[in-house]
Specification:
Bound molecules: flavin-adenine dinucleotide
Structural class: alpha/beta
Strand content: 25-35%
Strand order of the largest sheet: 3-2-1-7-19
Number of helices: 12
């Protein structure tokens, strides 16, 4: 069995390692077009902001480790240019030597990720307008800040990565403006929950511009000096970071005639097989069955990519695996002193998907109120008023947000109802929670 993996970070590295664990004799080759494999892209904002100080810590596994520990042939700086599903080969460009070779495979796993969206704006090509996807991008941003002593930044896009960058640029003492086209920060949340995050941003002197886009990037000698917004606002900047979303890297699959779904990602089944059963795809490039909507959706997050990679690796090596459990877009972000997290559908998404839905919000304490240090926590639950099935939850607070959302995400995995949640047996002692936890209180209100 000759297994070829394309892309060596979240999904690809997981797939290759799992394939080896399931078949000692398979020949496993991993092609990565860039220099590094298995790096922690989720850690990049914190490396830029110097909260993570050692660059080497981001390199979770090296090609040597893959070779020694797993007998996996990792070839970095090798770009897979095309896939031939009839002959079962890939054409690979060695970016160092310029040589092109045809490599045969029995099973092929695509984990090509996604590309940051860059709108065709005047000035977008300037040397100090950056997107952040990999270690090279992080190195370039860090080097530019250090070399030019940047003092003012504009971050475009108030999603998860945009907010992490705002926090980290503030940590570096850059005066930072945040621009978001929608009328709220963190678009996956409902507006009143997002407002709590916005307040934390303004409390840290971040200027937040909502409901307007960057129209022009002003430049001088190929260097951005500021941006002009659709509402006429002009903002001076030494640095512009774009965090306005990603588009799935589907080119290889599409050119090979593999089915692409309605949301623009590669279509896969529960074992991550594409429309060609010996070609698997995972990660940001695919559409997963969504755990609540039960339709294919793009969920560009690390958890699903790692789990799907593991399933694809096992199935490619052994032709069997447990099916992928439908993800629900569970995500979390720290913004200065507060945390915001979400799982499943917010109210506004539930409305759009026309599910019958109702929402409640409670304000609780992250542990017993009488125990020192109790912090306020907002929890919003969205559910089906007829069946009680939980459709989603959002939480914002200073402490304990992750625990509540993870508990509810777990209940949702089992298609739990608000009645299930009201009875869930959570651990309790005053420093950790309450006998009636915010999760219970939300469920009591909903029941
Ligand atoms: P990637 O990990 O991007 O790997 C794709 C790889 O394929 C790339 O290295 C690319 O060079 C390579 N490749 C592409 N085409 C080819 C080709 N033709 N030939 C050879 N190689 C190719 N998710 C979370 O859940 N939580 C977080 O906190 C979080 N933070 C993030 C912060 C940042 C800054 C970024 C960029 C992402 C973050 N994510 C986070 C998202 C998460 O990193 C991705 O969902 C995950 O990495 C997707 O895995 P993947 O394998 O699909 O793609």
């Amino acid at each position: 069995n000759r297994i070829i993996v394309v892309g060596g970070v979240a999904g690809g590295a997981s797939a290759a390692a799992r394939a080896r664990r399931c078949d000692e004799r398979a020949e496993i080759i991993l092609f990565e077009k860039d220099e590094y494999v298995s790096f922690a892209n989720c850690g990049l904002p914190y490396f830029i902001g110097e909260e993570i100080t050692e660059r080497s810590k981001l390199l979770v596994a090296t090609p040597e480790l893959f070779r020694k520990r797993f007998n996996i042939d990792v070839r970095t700086r090798h770009l897979v240019q095309s896939v031939n599903v009839e002959n079962k080969t890939v054409s690979v460009l060695n970016r160092e030597s310029g040589e092109v070779s045809e490599e045969p495979w029995d099973r092929l796993i695509l984990s090509t990720g996604a590309a940051p969206i860059t709108p065709p704006l005047p000035g977008i090509e300037s040397e100090n307008v950056f997107t952040l996807r990999n270690l090279n991008d992080a190195d370039a941003i860090k080097a530019f800040i250090a070399e030019h002593g940047c003092q003012k930044a504009v971050v475009v896009g108030a999603g998860f990565i945009g907010l992490e960058m705002v926090e980290q640029l503030h940590h570096l003492k850059l005066e930072t403006d945040l621009v978001e086209l929608q009328s709220q920060v963190l678009p996956p949340l409902d507006p009143e929950m997002a407002r709590l995050v916005q307040n934390e941003l303004t409390d840290h002197d971040i200027k937040v511009h909502l409901g307007t886009a960057v129209d022009t990037i002003q430049t001088e000698n190929n260097t951005a000096t500021g941006v002009e917004l659709g509402n006429g606002t002009q903002i001076a900047a030494d640095l512009v970071i774009l965090g306005i979303g990603v588009s799935p890297a589907i080119e290889l699959a599409q050119a090979a005639g593999i089915d692409i779904g309605e949301r623009g990602g590669i279509s896969v089944n529960d074992f991550m097989q594409t429309s060609h059963p010996d070609v698997y795809a995972v990660g940001d490039a695919v559409e997963y069955q969504h755990g609540v909507l039960e339709t294919p959706q793009r969920i560009p997050l690390a958890g699903p990519a790692n789990r799907a990679g593991r399933i694809a690796g096992q199935h490619a090596a052994s032709t069997s695996a447990d099916p992928m459990i439908a993800p629900m877009g569970t995500a979390i972000v720290r913004v200065f002193g507060i945390t915001a997290a979400v799982t499943g559908l917010s109210k506004k998404f539930a409305e759009r998907s026309q599910s019958k839905n109702r929402s409640i919000i409670i304000v609780g304490k992250h542990h017993a109120g009488y125990f020192p240090g109790a912090q306020q926590l907002f929890l919003k639950l969205t559910y089906d008023p007829e069946t009680g099935r939980i459709l989603g939850a959002q939480s914002v607070g200073r402490e304990g947000v992750d625990k509540r959302i993870d508990v509810i995400a777990t209940a949702m995995k089992f298609k739990g109802t608000v009645r299930d949640l009201a009875g869930v047996d959570l651990c309790y002692a005053p420093p950790f929670g309450s006998a009636k936890d915010p999760v219970h209180m939300a469920a009591f209100v909903a029941c």
